Amino acid sequence: MALAEAGARGRLLLWPRVVLFGDSITEFSFQENGWGASLAERLARKCDVVNRGLSGYNTRWAKLILPRLISKSTGAESTVAVTIFFGANDSALKDLNPKQHVPLEEYAANLKSMIQYLKSVDITEDRIILITPPPLQESAWEKECLAKGDKLNRRNATTGEYAQTCVQVARDCGTDVLDLWTLMQKNQDFSSYLSDGLHLSTKGNSFLAAQLWLCLEKKLSALPSLLPYWRDVDHTNPEASLL
Predict the structure, then answer these.
(1) pTM of whole model > 0.85?
(2) Is 196 a catalytic residue?
C-alpha cells in the first residue's frame, strides 16, 4: 500500500502534549536526571512533554511570548497540561538586578494574565499548574555572584514572598499549585536540592519530578497508550491494526 493511500485511510494521530513553560529551571529540565526528562519517560507512548523553558526570563517577558507558543492553531486543543514556573528571576533584588526584577504586584498580575490567556484558548484551570520558585541557598548563590564580580542579588526571604504570591494567585484563579519553596524547606538542609544555591541538583530534580507527578497523575493517568503493543499487531495484515 502506498503511503499516501495509508494516510488517507487512517485517522491523523494527534499526540497529546504537556507544555513546561518557565525559566532556566525549566530549560535545564531535560538535562541528564532532569525533572522534565523524568516526566517524559513516565508519559512515553501517551503524551509529548514539550520544553519551553527560557533561561533568565521573568513573567514580564513570558506573558508577551506565551501567545506565540500556544494558540488555538498551534496545539491548544491537544494540550492536556501546562506548567507555569517563574519567580526565581522576578524576585531578583531591584537595586542589584533591575533587568530581571519584577515588582511583586506585577508578578501576580502577570501570572493571572497568563492564566486568563490560556483559558481564552480553551485550556481550562484544571489543566494549569503553577510552580513557585524554589528556596534560595544564599551562601552558595553568593559564591556564584562573587565569581562574576557581582554582589548577592537575591534573598531567600524575598523569594518566599514571590512564592506566597504564586500560591495566592493559584487560589484566586482555581489552578493547582506546587509550592516548591515551602516543600523543599521542610528538609532542614534544603541546600542538597540545589546545585549552586538557585538551580536544581540531581536530588532537587528528583524531588520536583515526584511532587509534580502527584499533581499530574490524576489528570493524565487515563491517557491511553498510543498505537497497539507490538505483540498485538497483526503481522499478516498490519493495516488492520495500525490504520
Answers:
(1) yes
(2) yes
In 31-47, which positions are buried (b, 16+ CB within 10 angstroms) versus exposed (e)?
Answer: eeebbbbbbbeebeebb
Active-site residue, 201 included: no
In 3D space, the residue among 163, 137, 130, 147 whose CA is nearest the CA of residue 26 turns out to be 130
235 is catalytic: no
What string of pLDDT tens digits covers the 243 residues of the chain? 566 666 656 678 888 999 999 999 999 999 999 999 999 999 999 999 999 999 999 999 999 999 999 998 777 788 999 999 999 999 999 999 999 999 999 999 999 999 999 999 999 999 999 999 999 999 999 999 999 999 999 999 999 999 999 999 999 999 999 999 999 999 778 999 999 999 999 999 999 999 999 999 988 988 988 898 899 998 999 988 888
Which among 126, 150, 172, 196 is annotated as catalytic?
196
Catalytic residue, from 24, 113, 192, 201: name it.
Answer: 24
Residue carrying C-alpha cell 499526540: 15
* b/e map 196-223, b = 16+ CB within 10 Å: ebbbbeeebbbbbbebbeebbeeebeee
